[in-house]
Amino acid sequence: MAGLNVRFTDEELDALRQRAEAEGRSMQQFAHDAVVAAINERSRLFNEAADHVLRVSEELNRRLA
User: Fold this and answer.
1) Which pTM was predicted?
2) In angstroms, what CA-CA distances link 31 with 45, 46, 50?
């Protein structure tokens, strides 16, 4: 499995530690899940935008075809 080193300030690292502890998870698992959630959210927003554009332009595309 590939790895990634991420640098945090002392304050950021402390906040990460506190949040992970509050949720009963390791810092690594908490950070991993946060990154995956961010990736998924971006994909979801892109897909929603693409669907919206397709719906809005459906009539125009039909007339241009």
Assistant:
1) 0.63
2) 21, 23, 29
